[in-house]
Design brief:
By secondary structure, the protein is α/β, with parallel strands linked by helices. It has two domains: 215 residues, Ribonuclease Z/Hydroxyacylglutathione hydrolase-like (Metallo-beta-lactamase, Chain A); 127 residues, 3-Layer(aba) Sandwich (Rossmann fold), CATH 3.40.50. Helices cover 25% and strands 24% of the residues. The protein is built from nine helices and 19 strands. Helix 4 crosses helix 5. The structure holds zinc ion (2 copies). One zinc ion binds next to loops.
Length: 366
Amino acid sequence: MQPQPVCSHGFAARRAAYIRIMRPQELLAPTPTGLHCNPGNFHIDPVRPVARALITHAHSDHARPGHGQVLATRETLDMMQLRYGGSFAGSTQAIRYGETIRLDEVGVSFHPAGHVLGSAQIAVSCNGLRIVASGDYKDASDPTCEAFEVVPCDVFITEATFGLPVFRHPDAAHEVRKLLHSVRLFPERAHLVGAYSLGKAQRVIALLRAAGYDAPIFLHGAMEPISRYYESRGVPLGDLRLVKDMKKADLAGTITLAPPSATSDIWTRRFPDPVTAFASGWMRIRARARQRGVELPLVISDHADWDGLTATIKATGAGEVWVTHGEEDALVHWCKSQGLAAQPLALVGYGEEDDESGAAGGEDGA
Ligand SMILES: [Zn+2]
Ligand SMILES: [Zn+2]
């Protein structure tokens, strides 16, 4: 047999290198600033100012001000502007769900995450490799945002806020019926529901409406701008009024939503004998409810529970899973038991302003 010409071997090697599938860490890598995409020259949900940021959703631990360019859904950009003011970024670009854009070497698309209005998973593709960064997500139904979409991928980056088998969220509609039952039982008392002002509050209101409750619902002033914004995006919330316009006696038998911090301070004195409720996935843990002085815990979460996390991981078809943001170890262990490559991702700075992600005193969360 004739020896192969040297140049042909060189060509084959170069061609193999060209079509070689990239290693995932070459496409996206954890850094102290957040997930960094070197070939696309951007960060996802960076915790420090960067030149180009792709933002999954408007909760304050993911969406921070001060970046050069911000790419996000229209809703996320608008809510960042509501919270931080008009100059929160050098420039912005609204990305529609399902639209693919090119950033340098990389294709990027946003897909519904089902977490809050405008929340997105971000799919990053290059040389035949696709990684999906889910941000925060839930697969449970939510009338206030688009439903979670399964995006097939090679590597799935999942949150793990409720990544322990003990976390199985009840049906949110059932929790809201508990609240309405208590309102009927105590018509002389006010009901004060602690809920994060972006997402949770609007979901609780929409669930109350879906359960047939059509009386006015009262809001702490901090809830108003985001709630009005939801309505402007086609999420009807019914008759909403501000607590500050009301006399104490007239709040008997009513429901008010307030940021969690307000439900334990002097502000509550304006209510007649209030029943304090709190809507959070953490209310599954009785000690947390007691510790907060919550009389009526409502287990309503905007994060996937254990079954949701594991079902979603399977559905993506990913052979490799990176776990972040919560109970990494249990979920990594589960992935390995399913024959998937898995590792915890050392990302810092998330959950710190997002009370349902574990820290105290935050204003967002699930
Ligand atoms: Zn979030
Ligand atoms: Zn989060």
